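Can you please make up a whole protein chain along with its backbone structure tokens because I've never seen that pairing?
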Amino acid sequence: MRDERGNRVLAPVGLNNLTTLFKGSNCTLEIHPRARLGALSVEFHGSNAHCRIGPAGPGGNFSATIRLGEDCRVEIGAGVTTTARAFIATSEGARLVIGDDCMLASEVQLRSDDAHPIFDIHTGLRVNPAEDITIGAHVWLAYGVRCLGGARIGDGSVIGMDSVVTGPVPNNCVAVGAPARVVRRDIAWERPHLSMAQPPYKPDGGSISRSNYWNPTCD
């Protein structure tokens, strides 16, 4: 589908749970033919923006409200799942990337900007410019996590409940708090649910299938 302002939707037909809004021009929404979506709303509030959603993994789906400002780019990797509808917002040319096989729990928000400008009264300059957000592959964002502009999370890490990520977090670690700080290194996590997946006890890594993300933490 393409409108008179050059906005395009490249997606499989029959996505009844998809809603789109185009306020600008030359924007593109690209959804992989093998994507598995829950409720998805993509809003282009500026021009020259691009949103790409990758294919589904073995289970789960992706559900979100995504807002893109002028010149922004949002990239959702393969096999990314959400427990509930995530909120993703970008503006002012920021880029937001979620790597493959990430797991987002309920009430997760990723915001490259603060939604409203803050200025220094002496210089008149902005003090809160929009910044990129990069989430590596196989990252677990627990309930209520907020990733703000400047967040950079390495592959295989876990961000604990209600934490706020504002800067770099290395790979294969657990980070918690506001702002999030590393509390454990050299960890790996897997998707099998503790109560819903067999076996009923999972005391070590030999009790489940391992992913390829068992790596030591690097600074």
Summary: The first strand starts at residue 8 and ends at 10. The CA atoms of residues 19 and 40 lie 6 Å apart. The two ends are 45 Å apart (CA to CA).
